[in-house]
UniProtKB/TrEMBL annotation:
Residues 75-132 form the Heterokaryon incompatibility domain. PANTHER family: ANKYRIN REPEAT DOMAIN-CONTAINING PROTEIN 39 HOMOLOG-RELATED, HETEROKARYON INCOMPATIBILITY DOMAIN-CONTAINING PROTEIN. Pfam families: HET (PF06985). It comes from the Eukaryota. This is Heterokaryon incompatibility domain-containing protein.
């Protein structure tokens, strides 16, 4: 049984001339972590093999969970390459979150098929507050 709650993360509405910034809610105890809940493709996206490389929006949620009680998740190890966060993913509440190209590509590859369950990931760029 998993004990998770949606992170009380505050997202600023995006203006075309600015990048979206998020303020992470502080983790409440040393054993608490953030996970990315990656939502599946939509049926209208079609089968994976028929899709163009440029997919529809990626939908994610940042959730807080106790590491000892966490649902199964995949930890992602990758090279940041550029710190330029020019690619977007959408939160479940339709706010924009900017990520690097490598993180966007990881999310595109790992996104579950339509009608599948969401997948849970730990990606440092999203799960660690990079500002503190």
């Amino acid at each position: 049984m998993s004990h998770m709650k949606t992170a009380d993360t505050h997202w600023i509405d995006v203006d075309d001339s600015k990048s979206a910034e998020c303020t992470y809610k502080t983790l409440s105890k040393p054993s608490e972590i953030r996970l990315v809940k990656l939502h599946p493709l939509k049926i209208e996206d079609g089968p994976r093999e028929d899709r163009a490389d440029t997919l529809g929006p990626l939908y994610v949620e940042l959730i807080h969970t106790d590491l000892e009680e966490a649902t199964d998740f995949t930890g992602i190890s990758y090279i940041w390459c550029s710190s330029n966060r020019q690619h977007t993913v959408l939160t479940a509440t339709n706010k924009v979150l900017y990520v690097t190209e490598n993180v966007r590509n990881i999310l595109k590859i790992l996104r579950p098929e339509a009608l599948d369950e969401p997948s849970y990931l730990w990606i440092d760029q999203l799960c660690i507050n990079q500002e503190d």
